[in-house]
Design brief:
globular, 683 residues, nine-stranded parallel sheet
Length: 683
Amino acid sequence: GVINLYFFYPSTADNVLKKYHDLIGRPYMVPFWALGFHQCRWGWKSLAKVKEVVSKLEEADIPLEVMWGDIDYMHNKTDFTIDPVNYKGLPEFVDDLHKKKIRYVPIIDAGLNYSTTDKYIMKGERNGAFIKSANTSRTLIGNVWPGLTAYVDFLSPYGDQLWKEGLTDLYEMMKFDGIWLDMNELANWCDNGECYYNWTNTKGAKDPHDFHEFDKLPYTPGGSPLYKNTISMTGYHHSYNDFQDKNYKEYNMHGLWPVYQEKSTHEFLKRHLEKRPFIMSRSSFVGAGLYTTLWTADVEATWEFMRYSLISVFNFQQFGIPFSGGDLCGFFGDTTEELCGRWMQLGAFYPLTRNHNDINAIAHEPYVFGERVAMASRNAIRQKYSILLFYYTKLYESSIYGGGVVNPLFYEFPLDEKAYKTRNDTFLIGTSLLVIPVMYKGATSVEVYCPNANWFDLRSRVKKVSYDKDAKEGQVLKLPGGFDFVNVFIRGGSIIPFQDALTFKVRRTTTLLQIPVELVIAPDHNGNAYGTWIVDDWDTVEPIENNLYKYMSFNFSMSKTEMTVRLLTDYTTKYQYEQVSKMVILGAEGMGRNNHACLYKNAKMVEEMVGNYDTTKKTLSFYIARSAYIWSDITEVHFSDKCNQLNAKRTILLLSLIHISEPTRPLYISYAVFCLKKKKNKN
């Protein structure tokens, strides 16, 4: 075939990814709730067990956002059905979950139960909706969970229609919130790529092995036939002349099948739920991030695989699917109390935070092992919830510009050789937050390499590392590695929105709507900081395409007497969670006298924030007594000892407005700069 080679030459890893994502398509934006904690298991044999799990998670005070249904909920493991005995009452249970602000996501397998009396099979065969066998010219038959199976041909308009009809039928039975697509490699457990159902009675049928010419290649991956554990490469798909042309072989279409399935499912969810779709899939191809998220699939419950899971999340960033994660505590095999606790701490900071395991392994929901793992889970999840506004913004920006969200340290510090050695021990969220989990058995502390920069502890707000202009490399710190919290540093030069989900004991992401937002400013060694914050209603369909979001950018510059910050937006809808309530400047040595923040809107002072300087932590915090304004209302903030007596040496926080109306084009920013007192720049 023809091979097209593309070369990307930008100077940074992130820019290379952005160029690549420009080519293959930028990832779709997930709903806000998807960032919460998900609980799943294969092996909940009854609805009563599922109810018990929800109750015990609530009793253990572990935040819960999404419950999942594996194949246990199905009748005879058949798609678009509900077990009428073991899962009787599931639709009502899902309604009850919704009342508690908990979502439900069921699994759907790729193969449809092949029964000549099944309505989907009868309709599909009548209309040519399935992949066909080159041997029989009839529906290609495989074998998966329900037994004999047929596979929808998404190149056929009837196939796409049949798939959406099945999803519609299931949705009419229970109001699910997303879809989990599994076994879509395509999986098939028959030998030779096809179950030769009734083959011996098919007139003119040939020896099945005659149709495996595509497996007779000079090289096959792993040395196994291409049809191993999947369908025959000679199966063929719908073509423009209605199956008469058999050139659309599975050999050429195999990798694209899951993407077509994901696209069809995405379209269904968008239309029927009228909300932002959530899909998690096991298989993918180039460009799948336009429609779906992914997880690392079945991993072993070992320390080694826990570390591998982080590398897999890094890889998905490159593939244009930033929202990903692994089965927390492991899928195959029995986990341990210590491993599960550490994996819950690590996975809490993945984009997808889902606890899941195998039917043959011991249960490992986060309450099973007692208080230590329960505490580790609830605290780590709430640590993540505290930064969800920031995390959500980074995912949003990945949808607008491309690029990764969770990356290894060397992405930001490519010239630092020591940063390469931390590739599976720590990770960055965006460019601002360094997450430092415990990754090794028996460890009670953790060593972290911090590249040469200012680094602040996000929890204590204390500066842990200072930039050294004479240093050629960073510093190694030894930190406590308990089960009560995960070490997270904020990098100097960053501004993030922050909510204290630990103090407020948040259980649902919707609770964050009522929690005050802090603007945390961490200056770099030059006294500068930058950050962004995107605001919307968290589940609007296609917010980027329809410009239904608010984009704020904060640009901070500090000297002993001057600071500036700019806020960028023009979307007018106001949301309660963006109210002005608190602002804290880290590493604010010498700023203690500026204990008032005067908020201006179009040159008119509208609010006053009272400041407090912590001489120990070197933080300058400002609080507002009443929150009548949101951040997009504010155009300037002045810091001084008194709001009504601003002098020429005052510190200024200036906010200006912009909106990105066409994310596919370069961003041009224009703003006015007002000089209050001219100073010579010694640099």
